[in-house]
Amino acid sequence: MSLMTVGSVAFDAIETPFGKTDKIIGGAGTFIALSSSNFVKEQKIISVVGDDFPQEMLDVLAARGVDLTGLQIKQGEKTFFWSGRYHNDMNSRDTLVTELNVLEHFDPIIPESCQNVEFLMLGNLTPTVQRTVIERLKVRPKLIAMDTMNFWMDIMMDELKKTLKLIDVLIINDEEARQLSGEYSLKKASKVIREMGPKYLIIKKGEHGALLFHGEQTFFAPALPLEEVFDPTGAGDTFAGGFIGYLAATGEVSFDNMKRAIIAGSALASFSVEKFGTERLLEISQKDIEQRIEEFISLTNFEMVQIV
Amino acid sequence: MSLMTVGSVAFDAIETPFGKTDKIIGGAGTFIALSSSNFVKEQKIISVVGDDFPQEMLDVLAARGVDLTGLQIKQGEKTFFWSGRYHNDMNSRDTLVTELNVLEHFDPIIPESCQNVEFLMLGNLTPTVQRTVIERLKVRPKLIAMDTMNFWMDIMMDELKKTLKLIDVLIINDEEARQLSGEYSLKKASKVIREMGPKYLIIKKGEHGALLFHGEQTFFAPALPLEEVFDPTGAGDTFAGGFIGYLAATGEVSFDNMKRAIIAGSALASFSVEKFGTERLLEISQKDIEQRIEEFISLTNFEMVQIV
Predict the structure, then answer these.
(1) pTM score, two decimals?
(2) For residue B225, which phi and psi values (nearest 5 degrees)?
(3) Which residues of B touch chain A, with CB atoms under 8 Å apart?
(4) What is the pLDDT of residue B283?
(5) Beta bridge partners of B213
(6) DSSP class of A275
(7) In chain B, whose CA is at the least distance from the CA of A228?
(8) Nearest residue on chain A to B219, judged by CA atoms?
């Protein structure tokens, strides 16, 4: 089924304990589209770049079935740029530079060819832009999933809450879930947040896996224990891309299928952290992904037997 | 198959954000024996108390099939006492009082009736006492599992390493695994620690579940998302008790059976935190445990389908 992603296509510069990069390709939209392209053969993207963005990367996206009609290229302007430095534990980071550039006045125009999508993934952006996209769609998608971050909770909680009312699946991390709900227990937080709109809530816990909440049901997805996390940038977006890509490819919106979609997303994310930026995502094959999914199955699979 | 536990039988006084207790029954040996008694109908315990320890609790243990021949009652001496206060997040705590009392000169005497056990659980005690027990057994048990803590790593690492050489399964938490190995990545830590002796390593991650490592195999057990953790005291011991009790009841030492044993231990531990001390463990029925295990199964169960 048809999939559309809204999210930044950008430059990153990253420092980790393992090394640093110059400006490399990043952005939530980029990671989501690259990740989901492993499952869906055609998709749309709504985004904006400046005239400094390399044509080669646009060609890579197009070759993977990403329709770029909705990607605005602003002549004379510069692409969004973020630079950050990870701490030794790789779980926290400092932002060194944020240059909004083309994102500052981003108006998400939806070309006619991007109408009538069935699955919509709203990558992390201002909640206002995210809501504008929903409002500009003539037909509501079958499923709207959304990522956000603590920054928007700090500075525009009211806008965020308006957008949350319109979506189906919210994907955030544990700290964000605690901030958004005011509850420490993730189980309690999941109830508070689902009263704000989304019927499904995914809470990402990094190296501790992810939780899916819906109604009275809960699913706990593991994370693969890794020897080394080389660069966590984009891991959350890669997860979201694998998740929505799997859903769009299978077309089924159900708790059971979301469980599978989370495993697919977790598998993709586990590759993403192995190298800087999008590098690893551009290398992996269908076979690599299948093997990684097998590892997730064996990681959590058990069968109880009755003790007499 | 026969099971023996070595561990403290003690008094605790606990403060949490939800309330505080006077002196109540605690101790690693108590929690392990109560928890494992859900799976094994007869077991031994090696421990020591003073003459201030209530006969009622000894009767409770005996009624659950715990042979108290190896429990020394020191006339004119006092039972081990620990008091602690949990912080608001319930993940960290301050020790307020530690009175070693009878534990200070604890000599773990093994009565003849406690020889020839097949499963041995060494609860957290000085590594020297733990090793003494192993050395005093005429026949090596089929499986020796052991718990320890960062305190012993701080003050007697050499003794701890000598004891680790003699055991099969080490059960510690993530911080302890990092301290013992000097590695941040739990996967790397698991290799370093297993080179110290134990062929199986269980790393407990509290609300994030537990990992089992053996050879090249890894298993990730979830923790049940709880609305409230009322009192975490003894949760780790309850986990260990459920684990070793399940293994002893089924008799099979294999990776697959240890996965089941970890789920059993996790289920028991999820009850233990619901009330102060041993209170909840003394209430639950076989049916409660089976239902909780079913919750764990549905929490992690998924089936992937092939995407064409």
Answers:
(1) 0.92
(2) -65, 120
(3) 39, 88-89, 184-188, 190, 205, 207-209, 211, 217-223, 225-229, 246, 249-250, 256, 259-260, 263, 293, 297-300, 302-305, 307
(4) 97
(5) B201, B218
(6) S
(7) B185
(8) A299
Q: In terms of CA atoms, which chain B residue is nearest residue A261?
A: B304
User: Which H helix or E strand runs over A44?
Assistant: strand A43-50
CB A118 within 8 A of CB A141: yes
Q: How far apart are CA B101 and CA A279, in angstroms?
A: 60
Mean pLDDT (whole number) for A76-92: 91
Distance from CA of B186 to the nearest CA of A (A): 7
Inter-chain residue contact B89 with A184, CB threshold 8 Å: yes
Q: How many CB pairs under 8 A join A and B?
A: 104
- Contact between A36 and A108 under an 8 Å Cβ cutoff? The reply is no
Q: Contact, A276 vs A24, CB < 8 A?
A: yes
Q: Are strands A119-122 and A143-147 parallel, antiparallel or unpaired?
A: parallel
CATH architecture of structural domain B3-300: 3-Layer(aba) Sandwich (3.40)
Looking at beta carbons, which residues of chain A come within 8 Å of B222?
209, 220, 222, 300
Please list every residue in chain A whose beta carbon sits closer than 8 Å to the beta carbon of residue B286.
Answer: none
**Helix ranges restricted to H, chain A:** 28-36, 55-63, 127-136, 150-155, 157-164, 174-181, 186-194, 235-250, 255-272, 279-283, 286-300
Which sign does the torsion angle of CA A303, A308, B5, B11 carry?
Answer: positive
Token representation of residue B308: 């064409």
Residue length of chain B: 308
Q: Where are the domains of chain B?
A: 3-300
ipTM for the predicted complex: 0.88
Residue B35 and residue B52: Cα distance in Å, rounded? 24
- Provide the pLDDT for residue A304: 87
SS3 content of chain B, % helix, strand, coil (to 5): 40, 25, 35
Which of B187, B225, B227 is closest, CB to CB, to A226? B187
Categorize the per-residue pLDDT at A227 as very low, low, confident or very high, splitting at 50, 70 and 90: confident
pLDDT at B203 over 90: yes
* Span A51-66, average pLDDT: 98
Q: What is the pLDDT of residues B157-167, one digit of tens each?
A: 999 999 999 99
Query: Roughly what angle, to the nearest 10 degrees, separates helices B286-300 and B255-272?
Result: 110
Amino acid at B154: D
Helix (H, G, I), strand (E, B) or coil at A112: helix
Alpha-carbon torsion, ordered B203, B205, B206, B211, to 10 deg:
-60
Task: Select from A188, A205, A297 the Cβ nearest to the Cβ of B304.
Answer: A297
Q: Which residue of A has its CA nearest to B187?
A: A227
CB neighbour list of residue B293: distance below 8 Å, 6 or more residues apart: A304, B263, B264, B267
Q: Residues B121, B124, B125, B127: what is their CA dihedral angle, to the nearest 10 degrees?
A: 80
Asked if B208 and A208 come within 8 Å (Cβ–Cβ), the reply is yes
Q: Residue B308: pLDDT above 60?
A: no
Give residue B183's pLDDT: 95
Quick one: pLDDT band at residue A307, thresholds 50, 70, 90?
low
Name the closest residue on chain B to residue A210, using Cα atoms: B208
Answer yes or no: do B305 and A250 touch at CB < 8 A.
yes
Cβ-defined contact of A303 to B260 (cutoff 8 Å)? yes
Predicted pLDDT of residue B307? 66
Nearest to A220 among B188, B229, B299 (CB): B299
Q: How confident is the model at residue A48 (pLDDT cuts 50, 70, 90)?
A: very high
**Distance separating alpha carbons of residues B96 and B103, to the nearest angstrom:** 18
